Amino acid sequence: MTPRHAMLLAAGLSTRMRPLTDRTAKPLLPLGGRALIDHALDRLNEAGVETVVVNTHWRADQVEGHLAARTHPRIIARREASLLDTGGSVKAALDLLGPGPFFVVNGDAFWVDGPRPALARLASAFDPAEVDGVLLVHRSFQVHADVGFGDFAVDPWGALRRRGEREVVPYIYAGLQLVAPALLAGTPDGAFSMNRAWDTAMAAGRLRAVVHDGLWFHLSRPADLAEAESILQARLTGETR
Question: What kind and span of H or E run contains 41?
Answer without folding.
Answer: helix 36-46
